[in-house]
Automatic annotation (TrEMBL):
InterPro entries on file: ARM-like (IPR011989), ARM-type_fold (IPR016024), Armadillo (IPR000225)
Annotated Polar residues bias: 87-106
ARM repeats: 434-476, 476-518, 683-710
PANTHER family the record matches: ARMADILLO REPEAT-CONTAINING PROTEIN 4 ARMC4 (PTHR46241), OUTER DYNEIN ARM-DOCKING COMPLEX SUBUNIT 2 (PTHR46241:SF1)
SMART domains: ARM (SM00185)
Native source organism of the sequence: Orchesella cincta (Springtail)
Highest classification ranks of the organism: Eukaryota, Metazoa, Ecdysozoa, Arthropoda, Hexapoda
SUPFAM superfamilies reported in the protein's UniProt record: ARM repeat (SSF48371)
Tree of life domain: Eukaryota
Regions of compositional bias (Acidic residues) in chain numbering: 1-31, 42-72, 107-120
Pfam (any one): Arm
Chain segments carrying region Disordered: 1-123
Protein name, UniProt field: Armadillo repeat-containing protein 4
Amino acid sequence: MAEEPADSLPEESEGDDDEELGFEGLDEDILPETPKVKSGFDPEDPSGILEDDEGEGEDDEEEEEEEDDDLDGINFSDLELSESNDDQPSMSRKATKQKVLSSDAESSPESENDEADQADNQEIPAEYWQVQRLIKYVKAGNPTATIIAMSSLRDFNLRDNYVQLAIKEAGGLEVLLNILETDENRCKIASLLVLREISSNPEISRNIYNMRGLETLIHTLRDPAKELKLLSAETIANISKIRKARRAMRKGDGISRLVDMLDFEQPGMFTGGADEETDFEVPRCGACALWSLAKSTKNKDAIRRAGAIPLIAKLLQTRQVSVVIPVVGILHECASEASFRLAIRTEGLLDYFVEGLKTPNHDLTQFCASAIYMCAEDPESRQIVYEKGAIDPLISIILDEHLRKNKPLLSAATGAIWKCASAIAKAGKYLEQGLVEMLVHLLDDEPENVLTNVAGAIEQIVMADPKNARLIKRAGAIPPLIGLLTINNPALLVNATKAVGQLAVDDEARREMDQQDGFRLVWSLLKHPNSSVQASAAWAICPYVESSKDSGDVVRNFVGGLEALVNLLKSDEMMVQAAVSQAVAVIATNDENLGIMSDHGVVQNLAKLAPTTDDQLRRCLASAIAECCNYKNNSTDFGRRKAVSPLCCYLTSEDTLVHRAAAKALAALSSDARNCITMHQCGVVPYLINMIGSLDNELQRAAAGVMHNIRKLALATEKVRLR
């Protein structure tokens, strides 16, 4: 059973099977009357009906990076739907004309209104009026007429814009939701069949949410009837693609009820016969709804706390692809959280992902590769996936010309290889078998997400072993990598600059990059508006400058380059501050470049960042300050700008790399007597004494240098006092 891509939940096929639902031969006497439309819904103020506005800010901030409220993967034209008004039937015709008629009819002069109205009526499909008449029968209150009308309603294409507009403007949404509060299951099933289809429209989903429809659907999940559970879950899956609906499901205890639907077992559950597919509909629909809800960060934790992991592990053992795909989809979404990745690893679910790579179902293979991509963020999971043999099927996907045409599958496979690249490089087996050449071949004429993954894989391979830089250079990777630096895709630019920076450690690769003008392109990315690109460009500059003998002259050749670098220290992004500080530390080893940066205010910008508590920024910042103190009166200037006291606090960090960098900075600053006094007052002496006994030689020398200058000042002061 084929499923849709990861950004769209699997949909049920449309159909009209009244016999299975028992719509024939209904007895009017046993059916209750359909309740009238609720009066609590105010179409003029749909917001705030489900919950107050208070507290929304926290969730909005938590879900800033989530997908847009519009339903994913569904192509609907932008159709503005007006609110219904049951008391004024004429408004339906008027609103329809305003929103769905052609621009020619709307622009007709007033003198031709009658002719325009007649033309308008001809342009509205007959189905629109037929659907509105059926909604009137549903609202009539006769149970038999209600069920027959809804059965007839399903004969129309419920995903058509005109049909959905007719249902909404005739007040059908309120009636369909009210029917769910009756005691007649056949009426409720008929209503849910309609709601499941029309809720695929984002505007309809928002209206259902505003009418407190989610509360009704959550309550329906308690019903023991199987059909009601699965239809409610499918409807919730559609509505939950809206951000506020996901939050409402979490607060309304809907997640725990959906997790309960995963707890399903029957004799022969794991044999996977074709005739058993319908028996898995309840867990399948529950998994689809949870898949949609898992786009929220807080919902991911709620799913884990509801006990979903053991149930998911049990469902992964089935051979029903229709169940396994949404289950893997849940894991793919939730694997962005470290706690969920740990649970996946401890429950042994990584084995199922590797097995899924070998299935003939391409959709399942794609989702398993995507799940590996997410889980392999952790070194332990990365090594497990490698040892379980995931690389061979991933390479087979890339080598297969037919499968390579499936771009989502190719993207998932290259993404998994990217995350496992460090483990691959350490083993060396696949590099000898031509993995690098295969990846370089993908750098030509592929989608940008594939290029991003390939560039990331190359960067990881070189990072694992710098000797691999020459292997990648021989494979012809440098020209296409330099070409990627001209594509305005932030994610691609980040990986491409990192790869170029890692390759710069090799002399041959660096010379070829110079011929391709690669360093100039990397430097120009410092002016890119995206902060991640700025940070990656600054990091890429560091290995190039460190390994190049004439880098000082090259840097000065970029007009305004050093000024732009210093100005980036004013960035609000901590990752940019850290990367630029490290670049300043590397470039400042050249006296001329240090003088230019000092003239552009590097001292004051670094001093402003000194009070940070982030260890990475502390390490980079201390390294930059240590190098900048070698120019004229910069050490005195740092003390005057109150940068010494915060640096003393760096010695309390638990990161030994921060200790080393801070000790070097304090050693450079202690050349000024006032700075020595400040250090002594901050109580650095006990920390320095402990660091002198460290096994790190650089840390020993730096700590001893600070102690020497402080002691020297103390002795000089004592001599003056004794005189």
